[in-house]
Amino acid sequence: MQTLSSDTHPDAEEVQLELLRRMPPWRKLELMEGMTRTVYCLLLAGLRERFPQATREELRLELATLVLGPDLAARAYGRAVEPDDGDLLERALAEAGTG
Description:
- The protein is mainly alpha-helical.
- It has helices at 10-22, 25-50, 56-68, 70-77, 86-95.
């Protein structure tokens, strides 16, 4: 039997799937919320690493662009936000001595 994950033994995966099947919907949503929060934290950490001088608002807009895409982020936040926002990119290039 092939598993969904190459590093999981088929017996272990069957136990995991059975636990998920028996789990009430509210608990599944709770788990998804926690995973989503973790992904947002990881994205934000990556943005802080990439743009250490960015303001909180700039990071928020970049995060929105990554999560929502540029079009929806622009509609939600009232301005066009590109994946490599010019202000942040220019600042990063200037700090690296290439701008």
